[in-house]
Amino acid sequence: MFKEKNVYLFDGGFGTYYSQKYEESSNRCEVINLKNPQKVIDIHVEYINAGVDAIKTNTFGAFFENFGNDYEKIIKTGYNLALKAREISRRNVDIFADLGPVRGDEVVNQIEEYKKVVDVFLEEGATNFLFETLGDSSAVIEIAKYIRQRKKAATIVVSFGVMPDGYSPDGFFVKDLLEEVLNDVNIDAIGLNCISSAIHLNNLLLRLVNTYKFDITQKAFLFMPNAGYPVVRGYRTFFEGNIDFFEKQIEYALGLGVSIVGGCCGTTPKYIKKIKDGINNFKKNTDTDQNLDGKERKCLDENVNHNAELNLNKINEIKSEIKELLFSDDNIKADGIETNNNKLKTISDNISKTGKIFAVELDSPKNDDTSTFMKNAKKLQEAGVDKITIADCPIARPRMDSSLLACKVKRELGLDVIPHMTCRDRNINATKALLLGLSAEKIRNVLVITGDPIPSAQRDEVKSVYQFNSRKLARYINSLNQELLNGKINIYGALNVNAVNFNVELDRALQKMEEGVCGFLTQPILTHRGFDNLKIATEKLKGALILGGIIPVVSERNARFMQSEINGIDVDDEIIERYVGKTKEEARVIAVELSVEIASKIKDYVDGYYLMTPFNRTDIIIDVIKRIKEL
Fold it and tell me: What confidence tens digit (pLDDT) does each residue in 551-563 have?
C-alpha cells in the first residue's frame, strides 16, 4: 500500500473539525455515527475531495469502557459510513479502522478491550488498522499479532503521541517507543501524531536522526501533527495554526524521510488540500530521476556519494530552519548515561562501609510553620540518622509539599532526604517540573507510590489526578535519568509485606525493578505474616535494597486503630495485648522494646531500617535507634 506511493496522505482531525463545522462539542463525537450519520459522511467526503489517499473511521474512542454495549453499533455504523462516503465521492480511497489508546493500567485488560473492537471491524470487512496517539507499545504489539493471525493481508499502522520533550503521557521516551515496534513483523508502518505541533514533532525527528541515529526510512513512517496548540474559549477548544506554516513543516518532514503524512487535531480539509498541493510539488522534485535515459542513469549511479552528501546537507538545512524557529535546541544529553545497575552497585558499596541504613519518616507540617519539623530533623541527624523521608499528603490530606520541604532540609542541614512522590495529584507536566527542581536542588532519592484516593465525601469538590501508577512513574523517572537529568535520582518503591496475597505484591515489586526501582521501603512489620513475607522478599528481590519498616506502637488505642483503619498495616493481637491497661509511660517503654525486638528479628533480612515517627515523637525514635545500634 505505502510502497506504491512516494508519499501517502491521510485525512485530518475529524473530531475537532466536527466541532468547528457544526459548533458542537467534539467530546464523544463517535456517537454522532448513530445520532447524525449524514454529518459524518459529509466530513469524510470533504477530506476525500481534498485529495487524501485514506480516511479514518470516526471510532477513535469507540470502546466498551466509553460507550457500554453501544460500542459495537458505533463501530459498525462508523465503518459503513466511511464506505458510503467513498462511494459518494467516487474515489477509491483506503479506509482505516481508527483506534486510540485504551484506558487502564493492566496491559492484559487493554488487549482484551482492543480484541473486542478489532473483532467487530474484521466482521465488517476491515483490512486496514490505525492505532494512534498511543503512549505505550505493550498492548498494541500483542493486538497487531492478533490481527495478523486473523487477517494475514491486513495493513497495521502504529502511531504514538508524545509531548515536545519526547515523552508520552505514559512516561515513555519517543526513541524507546519507536524502537519497540520498528522491527515487529506484524506492524507495517510506525510514526508520531497528535499532542505536539508540527515544528516540535519535526524537532523530535531531528533528534531521532542526528542524536540517536534512528533510521526513519527503515519502515514507512507516519507524521500527523496538530495544527499548533489549542486555545479554550467558552468551554470549547479551538486550533488557530497557520496553514502555510503547517505545510512547510510537512515538507521538512518529507525531507527527513517521512513517507506518510496527514493531520491531527485542528487540521481541516483546507489543511489537507494544502498538504496535497505541497506533496505534488515534492513529487516533481523527487521523481526527476525516473525519466533519465541510460547514460544519465549511469552518471547518477556514479554520484551516489555526492547525493548522500546533498541529503546530509538537506537535513542540516532543515535543522537550521527549525532551530531558528524554536530559538534554541533542546538540551538533551545523549552520552554519559548511568545505568540502573551502576547505581545499585554504588548504593550497595556505601552500605557495606557504613552498616545498616537508618531512614526515618517525619510528617510535614499541616501549616506553614517548619520550625518544629526542622528541629526534629536536626535531632535525628545528631542521633545518626542517614536519611529523612517525608510523606506526600498521606491519607490524601493536604500538608506542606514533601519535595519543597526536602529541598529545605537538604540545603540547611545537608541531610540526605527521600521525599515521597504520589501519582495522585500531578499530571506528567507537573511531575517533570517537580523532578527537574529536585535534581537542581541535589535531591538524589524519591519514593514513588500511587497515593491514597481522595476521601469519598470530597470527590465532588476535589478531583484526583492519576495519570501514573507507581510503576509508570518509576519508568518515567528512570527515562529522565537517562535522557535529561544531570543529577541522577535513585528510585525507591513501597513494599506491602502485610499483603494477604503476597505473590501479587512480589510480582509488582519485580515489575518496579524492571522499571528502574533500586530499593524498597516496607510497611511496618507487626505480624508473623509480615515477617515471613519479608524473608520471601529478601530471597526474591535480589539486587534491591530493602529497608524494613518499623513503627513504634504508643498505646493500645494506637495499635487497634492501625489494625482496623490503616490500609497496608496489620497488628497481631498478641502485640495489642501487651498494651492493655498500660499507662502512657509504660506504653512508651513497650514501644521502644517492641521496636528493638522487631529490628533484631529482621536484621539479617534487610539492608537498613525504615522508622516511622508516631505523632512527631522523635524522642522515641532516637531511643530506638540508640538501642538498635547496640545490637
Answer: 999 999 999 999 8
